[in-house]
Amino acid sequence: MNQELKNSPTEQSEPLLKIENLKKYFPIKGGGYFKGNKKVVKAVDGVSFEIYRGETLGLVGESGCGKSTLGRNILRLQEPTEGRVFFKENDILAYRSHEMRKLRRQMQIIYQDPFSSLNPRFTVGEIIGEMFDIHGVAKGAEKEKKVKEMIELVGLDPSRYHSYPHEFSGGQRQRVGIARALALNPEFVVADEPVSALDVSVQSQVINLLMKLKEELGLTMLFIAHGLNVVRHISDRVGVMYLGRIVELSETDNIFDYPAHPYTAALLSTVPEADPRLKKERIVLKGEVPSPANSQAAAISEPDVL
Questions:
Q1: Which residue, 169, 256, 182, 257, is CA-closest to 213?
Q2: What confidence score (pLDDT) does residue 93 get?
Q3: Distances from the Cα of 136 to the Cαs of 55, 106, 133, 144, in angstroms?
Q4: Using an 8 Å Cβ cutoff, are 194 and 178 in contact?
Q5: How far is the CA of 26 from the CAs of 80, 161, 296, in angstroms?
Q6: Exposure check for the chain: N or C terminus, fewer CB within 10 A?
Q7: How many whole angstroms separate alpha carbon 89 and alpha carbon 110?
Q8: How confident is residue 299, by pLDDT bands cut at 50, 70 and 90?
Q9: Per-residue pLDDT tens for 166-216?
Q10: Inter-residue contact 45 to 295 (CB < 8 Å)
C-alpha cells in the first residue's frame, strides 16, 4: 500500500507508556466466583500497546467494549486483574500508595460527564485549587494566581473564579474539568470520552482546545471516544477495541483508508457522508452480538455488505 500518512511522533520519539497483557475481569454476581466456577466478564482481555511521547492515541469501539475500563486501569483508578503498565520504563502496578500519589502529578484524567465530575458545592477556584492543595504545590495568593492562569488557559474568564459549576454551560464545565486535569502540568492524560456528553456545536470547540493545549504543553494523550470523525481529527494513531481486546492499531490514515479488520470496516461504514448524494455501502457483521462473559463468542464472522 502506498499512501501518505500523518507525521507521527512514533517516528522520532520513545514510548512514554507501555502496556503489556493488561486484563481486568469482573466476577459475575451470583456466578459462583468463590465456588470454583469463576465466571467473569472480561472487560479488558490481554491488551498490549505503546503510547509515544507527544502522541495522541485514539481508542474507539462500541459501548461496553472496555475502553473506559482500560483507561482507568492504566491510571490505577481501578486495579487490573493481571498485566503490567510501564510509565517511563517503571512498572507502576508495583507502586505503593505513596508512590502513586506522587505519580498523580504526571498522569491525569479528563472525565466524560462535566456535570457529575465537578463538585456542585465547590467554586471553580476551589475545584482547580484542590489539586494544588493535595500535592502541596501552592497556597494562598500564589495558588489563586495559578488557578486563574489555568482558567484563562482553557478559554474562560478568570473573573469566574468564585462561580459554581451550575453557573456554567456543559462546554464550559468541561473546560473546567480540563483545567483541573492540567493544573499540575502532567505529561500523560487520559481523555475519557470528553465530548460525548456535549452538544455537537460545542464538541469541535473542546476538541480544538485539546489539540491546542497538547501542542503548547507537550502532552501525551490517550483519547477515548465513540465518534470516529472526532478521533480522526485529533489522533496520530488509532486503536480499535472489541470485546476487551484491541483488534487493530495503526496510523490514523491507515485505519480510515485501509481498514484491515472486519470489525473496523463495519464501524467505518456507519459514519455518515457529508454529501447526501454519495451512497455508502453499509457493512453488517453476521451472527448475534457476543457476550464479554463468553470468550468463545469473540470471533467475528465474514461481513455482509448492504
A1: 182
A2: 95
A3: 29, 15, 5, 14
A4: yes
A5: 10, 41, 17
A6: N
A7: 24
A8: low
A9: 999 999 999 999 999 999 999 999 999 998 888 888 999 999 999 999 999
A10: yes
Beta 82-87 vs 15-27: how paired, if at all? antiparallel
- Would the pTM count as exceeding 0.90? no
How many distinct helices (H) and strands (E) make up the chain? 9, 12
Q: Which helix (H) or strand (E) holds 208?
A: helix 200-217
The residues that bridge with 20 in the sheet, in sequence order, are 84
Amino acid at 306: L
- b/e string for 217-230 if b means 16 or more Cβ within 10 A? eebbbbbbbebbeb
Cell 473496523 -> residue:
264
Q: What is the mean pLDDT of residues 225-239?
A: 89
Segment 102-113, tens digit of pLDDT: 999 999 999 988
Strands 283-285, 245-251: pairing kind: unpaired
Query: How far is the C-alpha of 239 from the C-alpha of 55, rounded, in Å?
Result: 13
Q: Closest by alpha carbon to 291, among 59, 28, 35, 82?
A: 28
Res 125 pLDDT > 60: yes
The answer to whether residues 82 and 244 touch, using CB atoms and an 8 Å cutoff, is no
CB neighbours of residue 298 within 10 Å: 16
The arithmetic mean of pLDDT across residues 155-167, rounded, is: 95
User: What is the average per-residue pLDDT within 54-76?
Assistant: 94
Angle, in degrees to the nearest 10, between helices 124-135 and 170-182: 20
* Separation CA 158–CA 14 (nearest Å): 37
Q: Which residues of 281-296 are buried (b: 16+ CB within 10 A; e: fewer)?
A: eebebeeeeeebeeee
Grid cell digits, residue 139: 497556597
Q: C-alpha 229: how far from its chain's center?
A: 15
Terminal-to-terminal C-alpha distance of the chain = 26
Burial class (CB in 10 A: 0-12, 13-18, 19+), 140: exposed
Max intra-chain CA distance, the chain? 63
> How far apart are alpha carbons 239 and 61 in whole angstroms?
9
